[in-house]
Amino acid sequence: MSNKITTFEKNESEIRAYCRAVPTVFKSSKNAVMIDENDKEFIDFFAGAGVLNFGHNNPKMKEAIVDFIQRDGVIHSLDMYTDVKREFIDSFVETILKPRGWEDRKLQFTGPTGTNAVEAALKLARKVTGRTEIVAFNRGFHGMTLGALACTANNAFRSSSGVPLTNVIRDTFNDMEALENLRQKMFDLGSGMLPPAAFIVEPVQAEGGVRPATKEWLQGVQKLANDTGALFILDSIQCGSGRCGSYFSFDDLDVDPDIIILAKGLGGVGTPIGMLVNKPEFDKAWGPGQHTGTFRGQGLSFVAGKVGLDYFKDEEFNNETKRKGDIIRKVLDEINSKYSQAIEIRQKGMMLAIEFDSAATVKEITGKCYENGLIIGACSTGEIIKFIPPLTIEDDKLNEGLNRFVASVEAVL
Amino acid sequence: MSNKITTFEKNESEIRAYCRAVPTVFKSSKNAVMIDENDKEFIDFFAGAGVLNFGHNNPKMKEAIVDFIQRDGVIHSLDMYTDVKREFIDSFVETILKPRGWEDRKLQFTGPTGTNAVEAALKLARKVTGRTEIVAFNRGFHGMTLGALACTANNAFRSSSGVPLTNVIRDTFNDMEALENLRQKMFDLGSGMLPPAAFIVEPVQAEGGVRPATKEWLQGVQKLANDTGALFILDSIQCGSGRCGSYFSFDDLDVDPDIIILAKGLGGVGTPIGMLVNKPEFDKAWGPGQHTGTFRGQGLSFVAGKVGLDYFKDEEFNNETKRKGDIIRKVLDEINSKYSQAIEIRQKGMMLAIEFDSAATVKEITGKCYENGLIIGACSTGEIIKFIPPLTIEDDKLNEGLNRFVASVEAVL
Amino acid sequence: MSNKITTFEKNESEIRAYCRAVPTVFKSSKNAVMIDENDKEFIDFFAGAGVLNFGHNNPKMKEAIVDFIQRDGVIHSLDMYTDVKREFIDSFVETILKPRGWEDRKLQFTGPTGTNAVEAALKLARKVTGRTEIVAFNRGFHGMTLGALACTANNAFRSSSGVPLTNVIRDTFNDMEALENLRQKMFDLGSGMLPPAAFIVEPVQAEGGVRPATKEWLQGVQKLANDTGALFILDSIQCGSGRCGSYFSFDDLDVDPDIIILAKGLGGVGTPIGMLVNKPEFDKAWGPGQHTGTFRGQGLSFVAGKVGLDYFKDEEFNNETKRKGDIIRKVLDEINSKYSQAIEIRQKGMMLAIEFDSAATVKEITGKCYENGLIIGACSTGEIIKFIPPLTIEDDKLNEGLNRFVASVEAVL
Amino acid sequence: MSNKITTFEKNESEIRAYCRAVPTVFKSSKNAVMIDENDKEFIDFFAGAGVLNFGHNNPKMKEAIVDFIQRDGVIHSLDMYTDVKREFIDSFVETILKPRGWEDRKLQFTGPTGTNAVEAALKLARKVTGRTEIVAFNRGFHGMTLGALACTANNAFRSSSGVPLTNVIRDTFNDMEALENLRQKMFDLGSGMLPPAAFIVEPVQAEGGVRPATKEWLQGVQKLANDTGALFILDSIQCGSGRCGSYFSFDDLDVDPDIIILAKGLGGVGTPIGMLVNKPEFDKAWGPGQHTGTFRGQGLSFVAGKVGLDYFKDEEFNNETKRKGDIIRKVLDEINSKYSQAIEIRQKGMMLAIEFDSAATVKEITGKCYENGLIIGACSTGEIIKFIPPLTIEDDKLNEGLNRFVASVEAVL
């Protein structure tokens, strides 16, 4: 097999990472299964870092995009109008926004990455308020371009910026005391701290280790944002699009974000997209073209993404997500009670984490998983394993994957 | 027709721009033709802002990606290995790098936008040198995320950042005197200026108004970069991938960039991609995962992009590009000699610009072009019209587009 | 009288401030009394913003500097050696450092202002650690030049900087919970916060409203500094030089600062000085001339300052300071218990504050004090009156001044 | 002798610099002579880094300040009004401003150091314009606090800041081409550079190596400042107060600065001061207390400074300055023609420099000068010797000092 990866070792950058943990060449994939060139079958509990909520090569999406290509649909349109873009917007408004009373919200398509959408949200908040500082939280992940990276917490990522990461006030996630302390500083003219442009929060921290915000804290953040005249931004890039058992992971928290950031699962089948959902009173601060980007008009993403939205026309899909999440939960709880090295299980819908005692333990387990034909990833600073299989995973594949995980844990611990 | 754009006016952000100049809904496109929902046919001299070098819905690319989808190829793979990524890399090495003696270069796939690739290049340069400052040039365009935006010159874009754009030294493009002055400052310990991390240059400024770097100046920049221990970065996002009559627009300038930045046309059919070509001695400064991004493994882009690379196996395609560029040139030269409001023609290969006396004149002309069924865009600060049709445009469409342009100019001037 | 201030109104900058509250021209001063050109006598409870600990025109200092001038002593010496500088250093070592076991400390003379000394301390901390961030606290005041101003809390001062005030982490003074939260962030690799270069604290906040640090909190700050490898800097500019009943205001708190910053009272009779007391293991990070300044060698300040140091050869002077502080305290306590508009009394040694309900109340009271012949100043954001008479004030003048204050309060409330 | 400097070696900071080149302890000084504890007499061609224009212990100044002290004048007054401050202002207006038609200018007293005055000037310019960037020039020296240091050019000083020095655009002194290039950038909306808040220039660079600005260039800078709406700031700290044969070194250049910065010689006898001369239309942007400082009201500096101003009531003193400058010039010209290691002589009034081939040569010469009883200093990056004796130096001392210099040069070369 090694000859098959020579190309990569010879001509791809040293920056490559996931492929070092999964050192094989994949040739096809279907729902929760990936197959390599040796015809080995892997069950995928990583789903392209939370993108493939609807599975690899989702059949409805495949059909839709092949039809679209064959009828010469407009694949690339910048921000010009196309029929499929309209259908995507209409569908998002009808299926997602209207039931929440948000049908006046403005959708802004950015460059097709999460980090680009984050950068646009920060610009808008700064433009609306005329302020510079953003409040961001520990273990938060918001992207790798300079503006977003300043909001990202992990020092391993931050330290590669090469320049100071500025204009961000750092605080502690899910910590009511810290929030109260921040409030005091912000209303104290002798604190040296002025009201910020925005608070940016993940309703469920994904990369940070699957940490759902509590209702009390998230509402507290929203209130402090409102009280200081700052925008309240929810980064739903990984936790949104149905991942947590509801379209938005914050649907049960009774909050009203000024900007919602979406990407990853929104594009359907791995076809990329980045989008903001802006309150109109803030959106109007934009002038034409003030945040551009070549690939904002991705026809394939609109087509596949619309198929994805259809899953949310009723609650059946969400219920299935929760049911499957609980299947995983049960297995993880058992591991947690059995092994002292397992420390905590965290879950919202079908995003789960098991935290171990060390990154070393986790590395051994995920290495064994790979051997056993399971793709699964660590997160945070390495001591946590995250479970984000396709939401559409079949029960037998889910159980088989869990068996492979349990076997791997047993082999290591 | 207006009812058909209600969706956008009601639920899309106020930031939308191109669609205001081209206020119609497109439903299909083929090579250099776009068709709207009223079945009006437009000739496309803008090519998705320089992305669609091989035309809308290039038939070979369509076939390749439909086959790929239908065989359940891996559409989304992060930075894991896939067969189609390997084929893309092999093809790039064989077709592009080897003939230039650069077969040891390292390809780095970034988030699939130009600006993301620029951010990665800046990080690498800062990491390699341990320095912070980047030299960038007037009228340069490098993207809209915070790190790239600091390198972008146009104040209309810069003013939306909301925070200071720092760590960039600004200098003047194609100006030998300015370059000499900069050299003096950099070697004067009493200048307050230290050696920079990198110089970032577009070999042909595209958005800045089609301004090809002279050989003398670009070599001077490279020499100053080398002499100061800075990296020499060529941003070839819009001018590369065959646009200027050779694969790289700088192939005739005898330079040896430390990092080449590619995006736009590299992905083939509007399927997005961002890629760096790094010298190995600098690439090795990267540690695994130091600049990540969800959508770095775009199977569709690898497949369509590889088809695009095949065009460069011999010189025939480049020769055609130059031939067609000269067809455009001839028409623009005639306009230039006929109308006093036309000031200058600039060209490299099939990227051309005609500069008029004012942005107001240009706005009238491009408005008339739209009426006449020609999509064409202004650039820089509005006083320049840029010609970047698909390189694959048929001669009759090219001539018909030029006729429409001439008619529009005549109607206005 | 108004003709006498015409010069100032006509040719002095609009920035003038204290003189607006005390709009008369002073011609002489002696200990705690200032006399204006109308021969009106004022009792001075402000002491030149805490400089004149030993009184206006202290007779011993007068004699010493007149002798020095008449023998052609070196008034201005940059950082060259002079006899009087040596005597000042010897005296500081003998009288102040040795009794504390700090005779190895290194004295660094900076430009003769507090803010310049603060800038030097920040540079040294950043040089020693190779880090950039400084932790500073709410209501802290450290000066008005850009580096020091970034550490100063009051937004009224900060907002005049005209540029971002960066590289400072803001936290809450005397708040153990906030300190614990900061500790967590600093040891969490996922917090986005790295260890700082230094913590800068006033042991007693003066301008911030006379707030003595608690022992528990200040030791906590020192421990966090030590644990993170940061320097622990005590800004003793206003609270030092005997003001609080001991040479250093932190003598009773059992701390061991890496850098002590002194200015104000250190120079004796209003003759300016700025000085750092550095631990030798950090001081050695300096190279020659890395923080220069023209007026670092102030002969008059060394001469008068040495006389000031002599006051601390035994405890008598400190005991007097405490005794007089308690006299003031008693009067303020009575006011506090009598008037609902009085909120709190704070004290350390002979620095006291009475906090009222509003800045408006305070403005009326201090205005009435001026009429009654008492010079006294507000601080913080205006709602606090600070008592810092010369430490050498005679009892009768002290009582007379307090009577004037009480009369002013009674007239207003 | 070494025992006499033990104190400094043991308890003074490692940062000390001048004293390493002049390792003796001075006990008295008179006009241009300094005497050490061994009764060795030195002639002083350095004058306290350009402070002592009127000599050490100028007899008129001594008399004035002794009288002032003995009558209990107000030595320290913050920004309160005093009789001696009024006399200083009146004298400055009458003697300096009126003859230039500038009697409406506003004098702003800052903390008593040049760097503090520079910081205040930068704040005012930023406040007036609402802009952030300052244009500063190579080899410029403006001080060591963070805001001023960002304007200072010498990398040896800059590198000790420990944080990025931002918000300054660097350009080349006395270079018309560079200025023209800067103008182009500032009026090009596609340059990435916006109009600055101010240009700060020394009319004669002192620390940078005695480089007088040409009339053409300085007027060009003023015009560019005016055209861009920026303030034109002249830093006259070292070159002003009569040093160059006229009160301001730019009196012959027909410019009209918006802010003049003064310090050093303005205070008379080494008594410190910092002062701005602001145009009233800009000064009014200040609000009360927006740049404060404890030692702004230095009675001794007002008294001695006023005596200094009296020297400029007629042209006799300036004529003497020029005459003595030419005596030095003649000797330096001879050295320059005699030794190949001498490269260039530069002069304005009584500030002169001789540039040698290397810093090593200069170090040898100044070392020999010390042995021969001459105090003289290197500047810039070490290869230049600067001549700035007291303007009041007697002819015999001047000639004797020059003889010692010539002997030192001869001994080395």
Automatic annotation (TrEMBL), chains A, B, C, D:
Its cofactor is pyridoxal 5'-phosphate. Its EC number is 2.6.1.76. InterPro entries: Aminotrans_3, Dat, PyrdxlP-dep_Trfase, PyrdxlP-dep_Trfase_major, PyrdxlP-dep_Trfase_small. Belongs to the class-III pyridoxal-phosphate-dependent aminotransferase family. SUPFAM superfamilies: PLP-dependent transferases (SSF53383). Gene3D superfamilies: Aspartate Aminotransferase, domain 1, Type I PLP-dependent aspartate aminotransferase-like (Major domain). CDD domains: OAT_like. GO terms for molecular function: diaminobutyrate-2-oxoglutarate transaminase activity. Keywords: Aminotransferase, Pyridoxal phosphate, Transferase. This is Diaminobutyrate--2-oxoglutarate transaminase.
